[in-house]
Amino acid sequence: MAAPAPGGPGAAASAALDELSRNFTYWALGAGNGSLSGAWYRRNQIHLFGVLLAILGNLVISISLNIQKYSHLQLAHQERPRPYFKSVLWWGGAILMAVGETGNFAAYGFAPITLIAPLGCISVTGSAIISVLFLKENLRASDLLGMTLAFAGTYLLVNFAPNIAQAISARTIQYYFVGWQFMMYVILEILIFCILLYFYKRRGIKHIVILLTLVALLASLTVISVKAVSGMITFSVMDKMQLTYPIFYIMFIIMIASCVFQVKLLNQATKLYSTATVVPVNHIFFTTSAIIAGIVFYQEFLGADFLTIFIYVFGCFLSFLGVVLVTRNREKEHLPQSYIDFGNVPGKQTLDKIQPDSNGLSYGTLPDGSDSTKSPSGEKKEV
């Protein structure tokens, strides 16, 4: 068989395949390859650096969320509350949020999507710990169990996620972008997105599953483009400039556009449903979508054995369950009491709940809204 002509399309495809074969080196199980061995750390130091960036980024995001929450609480207790964007404390939280997201962005340049995306559970569990320490919120038994499960799942994910050493160059992204796997995936995703959008916009069905599935479908494009942009920037710094290729700017536009529409849909979900409901469902949907995107586009489970895949999926399940337990019924515990409960007084017939009336001179109002009470003889007496 004749070799491809130099400079022709066959030579370009052959060069891309050669580069991919050099990039992929899957971890083979063997003696001395345990997670505590020096050989394991040497082989995974680049991925572990990405994991460290993701964990630190998610912890910084947790701190920023609690700082912003604390600033809102402070403003709410002022006699003349200022707008939140005039608070120095709130802006400090916003800056920390940007720093944390930058850490997450950089992490995708050093480790696979299937390793970085599930680490978002650190943000949820970390936020719960910080809120207990600094906002004096209650620590429940379900919080402790959820944190334990999330940390156990994270440990399994770090140890059994795909261990591929893959340099993200512009040529690699171009090869993946026109591959039949990604083309089929995009066509299927567009069809599902259009069907769900029809039910959401035309039929007015605003179920949380529909909304957050739309978010997850956009998130899959986000993580693909984020890894491509971050990986090409990393490759440019460590090896050869990649920012002159058109594919970099195509991926950058996809990243920005998908992020904008993703945030818009997520805001609509938080308006219709409580945060305690949106956070765990969105985490599960987002992580699942990101893992599928990593498998389809970057082929991150190429060569993995069944046991590795099973333990990885089990680690994801543990982290999902941990997030659900940490966020379960959390908002209900902090709802302000809008009434005074007198309970049952022996020998007296009293109302169960009396609504406080801050605008009137009376202590409270009856359910019908009248500022009156009844005397023992049954006559109405104005207060």
Question: Layout of SSEs?
Answer:
Layout: H1 9-23, H2 38-43, H3 45-76, H4 88-107, H5 113-116, H6 121-134, H7 141-160, H8 170-177, H9 180-201, H10 208-238, H11 246-272, H12 275-297, H13 306-327, E1 340-341, E2 353-356, E3 364-365, E4 372-374, E5 380-382
Antiparallel strand pairs: 1-2, 2-3, 4-5
Helix pairs in contact: 3-4, 3-6, 6-7, 6-13, 7-13, 9-10, 10-11, 10-12, 12-13
- Sheet-strand content, in percent, reads under 5%
Radius of gyration: 27 Å
Major sheet size, sense and barrel closure = 3 strands, antiparallel
Biggest sheet: strands side by side, in what order? 1-2-3
Looking at the chains present, what oligomeric state does this protein adopt? single chain
Query: What is the residue-averaged pLDDT?
Result: 78
Mind explaining what this structure looks like?
The protein has 383 residues and is mostly helical. It is 64% helix and 4% strand. It contains 13 helices and five strands. It has helices at 9-23, 38-43, 45-76, 88-107, 113-116, 121-134, 141-160, 170-177, 180-201, 208-238, 246-272, 275-297, 306-327, and strands at 340-341, 353-356, 364-365, 372-374, 380-382. Strands 1-2-3 form a three-stranded antiparallel β-sheet, with no helix packed on it. The chain has a two-stranded antiparallel ribbon with strand order 4-5. Helix 12 runs antiparallel to helix 13. The longest helix is centred in the N-terminal third of the chain and has 32 residues, at 45-76. The protein is globular. It starts with 8 loop residues before the first helix and ends with a strand. Residues 19-34, 333-346 and 348-378 have low confidence and may be disordered.
